[in-house]
Structures are given as C-alpha cells and as structure tokens.
Amino acid sequence: MGGPIENQPLPAHLFPDREIHVVISILSGHQKAQHYYDETLKPLLDSHNLRYSTHTTNSERTIVNLTRSLFVINATQGVKQTIILLSGDGGITDIVDTLTSILNRRNDDSRPPSIFFKPTVVLIPMGTGNALAWSSGVARDPLESMMKGTPRSLPSFQVQFSPGARLVVNEGRNREVLTDSDDKESTVYGAVVFSWGLHASLVAMSDNAEYRKHGLERFKMAASRLLTDLHYYRGKVQWRKVGEDWKSPPWSEQSYVLATMVSNLEEHFKISPATKPLDGTLRLVSIGPEPASEITRLLGQVYPSGDHVSDPKVIYEEIDGLKIQFDEEDERWRMVCIDGKIVTIAKNGWVEVTRIPGTGIDARRVVEVVC
Ligand SMILES: Nc1ncnc2c1ncn2[C@@H]1O[C@H](COP(=O)(O)OP(=O)(O)OP(=O)(O)O)[C@@H](O)[C@H]1O
Questions:
Q1: How many CB atoms lie within 10 A of CB 65?
Q2: Which numbered atom of ligand 1 lies nearest the CA of 58?
Q3: Which of 74, 91, 151, 188 satisfies CB 3.0 to 4.6 Å to 79 for a cystine?
Q4: 84, 123 contact by CB (below 8 A)
Q5: Is residue 4 predicted with pLDDT exceeding 80?
Q6: Which ipTM value was assigned to this complex?
Q7: pLDDT surpassing 60 at residue 112
Q8: First and final CA of the chain: distance in angstroms?
Q9: pLDDT digits over 193-222, tens only?
Q10: What pLDDT score does 108 carry?
Q11: 110 pLDDT more than 70
Q12: How many Å lie between the centroid of ligand 1 and the Cα of residue 85?
C-alpha cells in the first residue's frame, strides 16, 4: 500500500494491545539518535496517536539494566511489547545477551516452561556498522520496515570462555569480570559476529569516542595501523558441523578468524555472501598468516561483492561450532569481539562459539526483529 508513511495503516506490532518502548542510544555512531527521534520518529508515532514510553541511555549499561528491570519482567508476565531501538548493533546485542542469560535453563530442568512473550524489536540503525540492520534489510528504509515489516525470530550464538575472561569497558581502559568467581567459565550471547585476529583487534582499537567520530572510516583507520605492523595470532583453531569431526586450518598462525550470522558487517562489507536474512546459519571466514598486501587484497574483495569467499586463501564454511585455544603472552592478542564488545581471554585460555539452533531442546530465540 502506497502513500505517505503517516497515512499507512498500523502494523500489528504497533497495535494498542502492545506496550511500546522507544530506546534512544545517544552515543551510538554519529550521535544522531536523539535528533532523529525528535525530528522524525516522534512526529510519526504521534501522528498515529500511539502511546509509548521513551528511554534515553545515560551509560554503557542502560540497555542491559532496562532489559533486566523492565523487558524481561514484562515478557515473563505475558505483556506483549514492542521495543523501537535507535542504536547500533550494541543495543540489540545487549537485549539478546541479557534476555538469554536470564532465561537460560538447564536442559534437564523438567519444570514446565513459564510464559515468555518474545519482545518485538524495531531496529532504527544509528550505529556505525549497523550490521544487523543492513543484513536484515531494514537499514535502507527503517520507517518503511517498521510500518510494513513482519516480526521474525532472531537467531543467536553462544560464546563460552575459560575462567578469567574479562569484558573491556570504558574505551579500553578498564576490565570487568563476567562471573562472580575467577574459577568459573562464563558465557555471552551474540547475534552478529564473533572474531579473533585482525577484526577483533581493529574493533578494540577503534571502540572509543575519538575513533567513532570518523564513522565507518574508524575501521579502515584501525586496519591500516594494524597492517603496518602485522601480527600473526598464535592459537589452535578448530571448527565443526554438528555430528562431524573437528577440523583445523592448514596453517598454524592466524590473521583473521571470524564466525558470523549476518551477511554484511556494514552496508557494503559483505563478509558472508551466502547468508540470507535471519536464516540462522553460522559461517566461518578465516585467513592464515599472509603478508599485509595479501590481506589487503583479500579484504578489499569483501567490498561490495563478497568475492573473497571463493579465493583459495580464504576458508569459508557453514559451521555449528568454533573453538580456539590461545597461545599468546600479550593480552592485546587474546582479545575477541562479540558483536562489537571486546572480551580478553586469560593466558592459555580458550573460547568456544556454538550456534544456537532454532528448533529442538537447545533452541532459544528471545526476540523478534521486524524486517
Ligand atoms: N549515554 C551513554 N553513555 C555512555 N555510553 C553510551 C551511552 N549511550 C550509548 N552508549 C554506548 O555507546 C556504544 C554505542 O554502541 P552501538 O553499538 O550502539 O553503536 P556503534 O558502536 O557506533 O555502532 P555499531 O555497533 O553498529 O558499529 C555502546 O557501548 C553503548 O552502550
């Protein structure tokens, strides 16, 4: 149905039986979220006489806290809710990680499942990469997607860390524990990307307000610094499909190890061309210890076509699990990236990434995304 967006009929996820929350992540990307809300979103919502609450971030923890104190309570009390999220990938990951961690039950827990109404999330991309919004097709016209799209379950993956893993916070200056004890393994959930090597290092290097100012250039600036003094990452990498044996690359040092559930990490950075929107697949992209010129050539092919995946120097496979045993002294080479967050692994530690299936006993889908 055509016509101006204010005249479009309301989709079911904006009906009056839904509790509607607008979350404005004011420091994402170029810090345009508040302005976009004031000038564009609010007038549209008001033109439909919708009732909604707004929440503005005031720290890195705001979306996590809001999920704990409000979204999870609503969801488990049977309240239907729609969250209109003005942020980058960090915001949706905070919601998915927090909900999954809270709702996680052991497989042998025989108590009947409680009510859980999956929150519906409308993505309004305001970050730098906005990988999920580009990959799910909503970034081109987010308001059109909000008005005409359909909610679809968002696939995710689990990342388990050996004891002693730490979350890097405060622009790289501080470390936060992930569990209450250093003897325990810890778990984080993501929906976009896991990486180690060049990708994780460049996200870590550029995850601060100074770099964020440069928009997408932030990643290229960090990459060129890393490529001038290239490091080969030491550790044992293995992956597999369920029911098959673990496999290893033919090289012993790594440049690039990345597992993703999306096709695009940015609008034109097609890291996994075979991935379809929200198809639930996890794909590995890996490059060995190549010289900087080769890595530049291979990553250059990612823009915009994704031709790198047919190069013999790139491993590109659909996987269900990936594990890494780290063999690095210096902490900065033991940093991994989960949807933009950086976690440091303890010396001689390990990490294991597992695709969460959509059906069966291990299935878990905690939100729906309108696309
Ligand atoms: N008011 C605030 N005070 C402190 N930190 C904030 C505030 N608002 C947002 N943040 C933080 O800013 C960061 C923005 O991350 P987000 O992923 O939304 O955007 P991005 O990193 O620019 O884009 P992308 O992840 O799509 O590349 C997050 O860590 C978020 O918690």
A1: 15
A2: 1
A3: 74
A4: no
A5: no
A6: 0.97
A7: no
A8: 16
A9: 999 999 999 999 998 888 888 888 888 889
A10: 57
A11: no
A12: 12
Q: Is the CB of 264 under 6 A from ligand 1?
A: no
Do the strands 282-287 and 256-260 form a parallel or antiparallel pair, or are they unpaired? antiparallel
pLDDT-derived band at 180, boundaries 50, 70, 90: confident
Which of the listed residues 60, 167, 266, 267 should we mutate to test ligand 1's pocket, taking the one with most ligand atoms within 8 A of CB?
60
Q: What is the pLDDT of residue 113?
A: 60
In a 13 Å sphere around the CA of 318, the CA atoms on its Cβ side amount to 9
**Mean pLDDT of the chain, nearest integer:** 93
Q: Which of 87, 136, 138, 341 has most ligand 1 atoms within 8 Å of CB, for mutation?
A: 87
Q: In whole angstroms, what is the distance from residue 234 CA to residue 220 CA?
A: 24
For residue 208, what are the contacts with CB-CB under 8 A and spacing of at least 6?
171, 172
Residue of 26, 27, 30, 337 with the most ligand 1 atoms within 8 Å of its CB, for mutation: 27
94 C-alpha to ligand 1 centroid (Å): 10
H helix intervals, the chain: 33-36, 42-47, 62-66, 72-76, 89-103, 131-135, 142-148, 198-206, 209-212, 217-228, 292-300
- Per-residue confidence (pLDDT) for residue 92, from 0 to 100: 97
pLDDT at site 305: 86
Query: What mean pLDDT comes out for the span 20-24?
Result: 98
Domains of the chain are: 5-154+363-370 (3.40.50.10330), 157-355 (2.60.200.40)
Spatial CB neighbours of 293, under 8 Å, sequence gap ≥ 6: none
